[in-house]
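> @MW can you paste both from yesterday?
MW: sure, first one:
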Amino acid sequence: MTPDEPWAALRLRGILPTPCRVLFVGINPGVRSAQTGHHFAGYSNRFWKLLHDSGLIPEPIGAFDDRRLAEWGYGLTNLVARPTPGINDLRPAELQRGRAMLQRRIRRTRPKIVALVGVT
């Protein structure tokens, strides 16, 4: 971590209900999400709007309501915990470790569906 990256040490806690109907998996948190402590908190992120528009949740919510997803049996996690401005800042070893961690989380929460989300 460099002085101009104070957010680099932050980690965003996953939402992992059991049972879990759908586990949404992002690549890694953006800087704003890490700073606020809420998933998909970027100003231009459309995750929350699209989640409601799809009919998966009965009411519109935003990033600061992310913990409410557990009410509907939905979970959120990331492949890599370290926040970055973009996925190009991730190292291959981080992605490999993330894969193993994700497999453990899937075994523990037993979601019916694992949905990979993100621009990539």
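MW: second:
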Amino acid sequence: MVVHPIAPVFDENSRILILGSFPSVKSREEMFFYGHPQNRFWRVLAAVFGAQTPETPEEKRAFLLSHGVALWDVLASCEIEGSADRSIKNAVPNDLSPIFKTAKIYQVFVNGKTAEKYYNKYMKKTLGRAAVCLPSTSPANAAWSVERLVKAWRAAITGEDEAPIM
């Protein structure tokens, strides 16, 4: 059983919550979300908000909080082979109540189909809200280019089709 080692990022100004499934081996090593350089999460989210891509965990945390984004994962622990979501067994969900008690979250997003599956299984009924499934930023989702991901994420998060003016 692998236990999620990374604390959620949120504060009282967080307005949206993005949930992944479970951190990759690289993210667990770095002790921060989306740590694998091939994962497009940080490039996509930076483009959505018209910002520079954050590099360090400190920059990433500041970026999230400055844009009202809370970030965590659906699962608190599971059996997993490496970083392969398809291998997840015996999943245990995270308790999202500290985020919802602190922040006025108006929308929940999940990063990919695995996060959606576990959100719907463990959290949707308890929270009484559906999550919007965004296309995964994982390099395994090779059918989606960075540009296509940015367009889909921007439309879902901001309601806009065009890039913000920097």
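> thanks! The chain has one domain: 2-158.
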